[in-house]
Amino acid sequence: MSETVLSNNDQPSATEPTHPITDKPVKRSGNGLAVLALLLGAAGVAVGGWGVWQVRQLQGNEFNQGEHIEALNQRAEALQQREQQISAQLASLPAANELEDRRRLVAQLQGDQQRLSQKLETVLGESRKEWRLAEAEHLLRLATLRLSALQDITSAKALVEGADQILREQSDPGSFAAREQLARSLAMLNNTQQPDRTGLFLKLAAQRDLVRELSAQSPEFASDADALGALSADGDVSSRLSQWWAEISKYFQVDFNADDNVRPLLAGQQLNQLRLALSLTIEQAQWAALNGEAKVYSQALDDARSVLLANFNADNPQSKAMLDSLNALADEPVAVATPDLSESLAAVQAYIQRRHLPAEAEGSKP
Q1: For residue 132, how far is the Cα from the chain centroid?
Q2: Is residue 235 classed as helix, strand or coil in its secondary structure?
Q3: pLDDT the model gives residue 75
Q4: What Rg do the C-alpha atoms of the chain give, in angstroms?
Q5: 133: number of Cβ within 10 Å
Q6: Per-residue confidence (pLDDT) for residue 11, from 0 to 100
Q7: Calpha distance 94→96 (Å, rounded)
Q8: 181-205 exposure pattern, b = at least 16 Cβ within 10 A, e = fewer
């Protein structure tokens, strides 16, 4: 039984294929089919994944295209609104022929404006020159006024130099005569000495302050009491007599050969009145010095010296010093002979009139 089984097991199966020539059994290709199946399955999976990826890509593209289309739609709506606005603006604009007329009017207006600007520049240039010439004439009038009213040589010289500078800026040969006359006036002003009125005023003010310090000085007599005392120094009676004589000689002395007038001592109230009178005369001299009044200045100083000589002792050092100062101040010049600027003013006015003649002749032409 076992042998039969073994024999049956050892025999090839009827189902196993055999080689037609060798009659040997052929091995099955099950492993190859499995591999092939796996390959086919993997290929299918890959194709399926690629398909899924393509589907997702298509879905993503469709989504992006939807957003892009929506943005395009919004932009199209905005452009449509802008187009409507532009259409409304174009509808409000005038017609082409009207625009052409306006353009032509604008061009004509620009041309007229340019010509007017050129004319205005020309007129303003001439006006500036005319204004400067009028300023030169005004400066000469001021110089004449300063000379006649205040005798201010320095200010008049500066004003005339300013007028000459204006004529120099004109660069016009026609101004030669006017500038020549201005040069003459400047030469006369340079040769005229300016009085120091401020210095005189201050010097008189200092003398006026010293008036309050003037005082009446008691006369002192030189006696020979000391000599008498020396001669009688031996005796007691003589010594007492000499002392008494020395004390008495301080208050009075008899001089039979005196030729000068004896002036009494001034009381307090009378002295103050004299000081006030002297101060007023010096103040009047100050006013005359500032205003260039030579006669008033001389008269005021004469009055001051008269008050000083008539009422104060000439031997007083204060009175003597003040008298010397007043005498020195009386010699100072207060007024000067100022040059006449009328010819210079007339020359400048004639030059201005000559400049106006061509313009008037041109304006009178038809």
Answers
A1: 22
A2: coil
A3: 85
A4: 66
A5: 24
A6: 45
A7: 7
A8: bbeebbebbeebeebebeebeebbe
Q: Write out the CATH class of domain 127-193+339-360.
A: mainly alpha
> Which one, of 327, 326, 308, 304, lies nearest residue 316 by Cα?
308
**165: which 2 tokens?**
């500078």
Tokens of 264: 């009494």
- CA-nearest of 298, 350, 303 to 182 is 350
| Residue spans of the chain under pLDDT 50 | 1-16, 19, 21-22, 26-27, 217-235, 261-262, 265, 267, 361-366
Both tokens assigned to 194: 């300016």
Neighbours of 287 (CB within 10 A): 14
Residue 268: its pLDDT value, please? 54
Residues facing residue 25 across a β-bridge: 18
User: Concatenated DSSP letters for 283-305?
Assistant: HHHHHHHHHT-HHHHHHHHHHHH
Closest CA to 159 of 172, 148, 146: 146
Q: How far apart are CA 128 and CA 110, in angstroms?
A: 26
Distance of CA 160 to the CA centre of its chain: 26
List the structure tokens of 230: 């020396």
Angle at which helices 317-330 and 294-311 cross, to 10°: 160
What is the model's pLDDT at position 366?
41
Domain map (residue ranges) of the chain: 127-193+339-360, 197-218+267-330
Cα atoms in the 13 Å half-sphere on the side-chain side of 355:
22
Contact indicator for 326, 309 with CB cutoff of 8 Å? no
287 contact partners, CB below 8 Å, separation of at least 6: 293, 296
CB 300 within 8 A of CB 284: yes
Question: 235 is written with which tokens?
Answer: 């005796």
Q: Residue 187: its pLDDT value, please?
A: 94
pLDDT at 191: 92
Rounded Cα–Cα distance for residues 350 and 252 (Å): 82
